[in-house]
Amino acid sequence: QAKMSRPLQARRLEGIDKNIWVEFVKLAVTYSKVNLGQGFPDFPAPDFLQEALARALGGGNHMLHQYTRAFGHPPLVKVLAQFFEKLLGRELDPMTNVMVTVGAYQALFCCFQALVDEGDEVIIIEPFFDCYEPMVKMAGGTPVFVPLRPNPPKDGKLMSSADWQLDPAELASKFSERTKAIVLNSPNNPLGKVFSRGELGLIAELCVKHDVLCFSDEVYEWLVYDGKQHIRIASLQGMWDRTVIIGSAGKTFSATGWKVGWVVGPDRLLQHLRTVHQNSVYHCATIAQEAVAQGFQRELMLYGKPDSYFVQLPKELQQKRDWLVKSLDAVGMKPIIPEGTYFLVADISQFKSDVPDVPNSDEPYDYRFTKWMVKNKGLAAIPLSAFYSEAHKNNYTNFIRFCFAKEEATLKAASDILQKWKQEKTS
């Protein structure tokens, strides 16, 4: 049998074949009794959204089963434009300033493929959602990393995600004539940090000074706690013309499997994203877009009112966050209290003696700990070092990430596992 002698793999895939989610989702499915690893709710999407989908399926409009406009179902892009006009304080054209994507994941992919070229540098703030680095590399760019640095409170209180901050001089040093873009994720996954106006102002000032784009991943924009405010960097001076905002119906409406996302930004940037979109996925599911459009129409009418889902959901999730914080703190896994998102990071230093050491292992400790925990305790989480570059990951191997967007019964089951584990440690 003849064999091909030439390499099969495209060079752009070299070194990015491994994926944390493939490995750890498989472990969770195989071993976990309680899965607080992958970031999806195990509670239902809101009734009004499910009812909208049912109407779209059975309402007699057979065209909802066919193609719609490639760059976004007209009812959806129109209502998104209306909504973001309120949020940004500027007029938007739904046909040129909004594009619908297959989840925020494809929105990110379009950004990197359309706007990053060979030799371009892209600044990524650590910890970062893990797809940013491989997507930069697939576009031919070079990722440049700058970490958020923890500043623990001196009064003995639990650390907050706000205690993880950028060093202004260090950040400024990463900008150069080769810098094409910076990726901003606020609220941040995995840390739950909500960037302050001052921090965003610093980033904006550097973007304007160096003529750099901003890919602003805002999928958790409504999930902000303790009275904090999510500030959109595109609303700051000089930033609209250089920012692509990325959003997600999956996170906004607790329906991650629907895979409806969007980008909002100036036409001069989005025209290039449309080129990538039309030559890759081309089109997103019409019925899902119709249901999401109806969900936004409801929220537009209830904007800022107590009955709004965007008001109710963060209140519910803040209670779940507080439950998990209390459970982790009680057993000695010190949580970092998140200001937003589905996630919190916990320090596992006091549990290190539970996990057998592996001589000559090059696997980070948090990976080994998390694998041991799911196999021996039935509790699934994600190692924090998965959200760091190779250069920095060994500095953050005493932390793991939990998802608290779960039913109360799921969080109680996790608490029971932790309590039993603590009792075993002290007996």
Automatic annotation (TrEMBL):
Residues 33-414 form the Aminotransferase class I/classII large domain. InterPro entries: Aminotransferase_I/II_large, Kynurenine-oxoglutarate_AT, PyrdxlP-dep_Trfase, PyrdxlP-dep_Trfase_major, PyrdxlP-dep_Trfase_small. The gene is Kyat1. The keyword Transferase applies. GO terms for cellular component: mitochondrion. Gene3D superfamilies: Aspartate Aminotransferase, domain 1, Type I PLP-dependent aspartate aminotransferase-like (Major domain). Pfam families: Aminotran_1_2 (PF00155). GO terms for biological process: kynurenine metabolic process. It catalyses: an S-substituted L-cysteine + H2O = a thiol + pyruvate + NH4(+); L-kynurenine + 2-oxoglutarate = kynurenate + L-glutamate + H2O. Keywords: Aminotransferase, Lyase, Pyridoxal phosphate, Transferase. It comes from the Eukaryota. Pathway: Amino-acid degradation; L-kynurenine degradation; kynurenate from L-kynurenine: step 1/2. It comes from Ptilonorhynchus violaceus. Its cofactor is pyridoxal 5'-phosphate. Homodimer. GO terms for molecular function: cysteine-S-conjugate beta-lyase activity; kynurenine-oxoglutarate transaminase activity; pyridoxal phosphate binding. This is KAT1 transaminase. Belongs to the class-I pyridoxal-phosphate-dependent aminotransferase family. The keyword Lyase applies.
